[in-house]
């Protein structure tokens, strides 16, 4: 039986106006409720341990402690909490580092009103969510690569390879990325 109770969300962003906007948006729907708020990563860690939300919706660039560091600590303390990064950052290294830290989803702020419900419900069900703009960039990369065979080691920097290996790391029944995704990346790299 599917649980019909609203998804409990801890909202983490250092900008009060953004938090207020998201709270208004959530109040208009019935799929999730804001169970707590935090203004930085340190507050998020403390609130997550008290509230035990279903999902943490977290900004990346914040004072005191950024969202990636907080995500890593929250994930270490409670593997059942789902983590969705809500950010303006489209840097590939930041995206990979977020997933390596334990993020289950990545939503761009300029698109979030249209995608946030899908992202939150998707990660709550145990899947991974990538903002469509980021997924589109991956598809474009695949479409524009040359047919020359290359390995991941030839295409990615050492830091990117380390991050990719961390992202692909599985612990028990928890995998940050499906192994098939890593295979697709290897195939993509060979076609670059």
Give a short summary of the structure:
The chain has about 190 residues and is α/β, with parallel strands linked by helices. The chain has helices at about 15-25, 40-50, 65-75, 90-100, 110-125, 130-145, 150-155, 160-165, 180-190, and strands at about 5-10, 30-40, 55-60, 80-85, 105-110, 130, 170, 175. The strands form two sheets. Strands 2-1-3-4-5-6 form a six-stranded parallel beta sheet, with helices on both faces. The protein has a two-stranded antiparallel sheet with strand order 7-8.
Describe the structure.
With 192 residues, this protein is an alpha/beta fold. It folds into 2 domains: 7-131, Response regulator (Rossmann fold, 3-Layer(aba) Sandwich); 145-192, no CATH class. The protein has helices at residues 16-27, 41-51, 67-77, 92-100, 112-124, 132-144, 152-155, 158-167, 179-191, and strands spanning 7-12, 32-38, 55-58, 82-87, 105-108, 129-130, 170-171, 174-175. Strands 2-1-3-4-5-6 form a 6-stranded parallel sheet, sandwiched between helices. Strands 7-8 form a two-stranded antiparallel ribbon. Helix 2 runs parallel beside helix 3 and helix 4 packs parallel to helix 8. It starts with 6 loop residues before the first strand and ends with a helix.
Number of strands: 8
Helix residue percentage: 40-55%
The strand line-up of the biggest sheet is 2-1-3-4-5-6
CATH class of the largest domain: Alpha Beta
End-to-end distance: 46 Å
Low-pLDDT residue intervals, each spanning 5 or more residues: 169-176
List the helices and strands and how they pair.
Layout: E1 7-12, H1 16-27, E2 32-38, H2 41-51, E3 55-58, H3 67-77, E4 82-87, H4 92-100, E5 105-108, H5 112-124, E6 129-130, H6 132-144, H7 152-155, H8 158-167, E7 170-171, E8 174-175, H9 179-191
Parallel strand pairs: 1-2, 1-3, 3-4, 4-5, 5-6
Antiparallel strand pairs: 7-8
Helix pairs in contact: 2-3, 4-8
């Amino acid at each position: 039986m599917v649980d019909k109770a609203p998804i409990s969300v801890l909202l983490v962003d250092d900008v009060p106006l953004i938090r207020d906007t998201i709270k208004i948006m959530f109040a208009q729907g019935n799929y999730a409720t804001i169970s707590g708020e935090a203004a930085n990563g340190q507050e998020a860690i403390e609130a997550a341990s008290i509230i035990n939300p279903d999902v943490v919706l977290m900004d990346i660039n914040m004072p005191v402690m950024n969202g990636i560091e907080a995500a890593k600590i929250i994930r270490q303390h409670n593997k059942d909490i789902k983590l969705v990064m809500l950010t303006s950052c489209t840097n590939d290294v930041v995206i990979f580092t977020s997933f390596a830290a334990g993020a289950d989803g990545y939503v761009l702020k300029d698109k979030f009103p249209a995608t946030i419900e899908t992202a939150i419900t998707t990660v709550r069900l145990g899947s991974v969510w990538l903002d469509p703009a980021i997924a589109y960039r991956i598809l474009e990369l695949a479409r524009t690569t040359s047919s020359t065979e290359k390995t991941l080691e030839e295409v990615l920097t050492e830091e990117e390879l380390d991050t990719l290996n961390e992202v692909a790391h599985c612990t028990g029944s928890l995998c940050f990325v499906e192994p098939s995704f890593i295979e697709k990346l290897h195939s993509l790299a060979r076609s670059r």
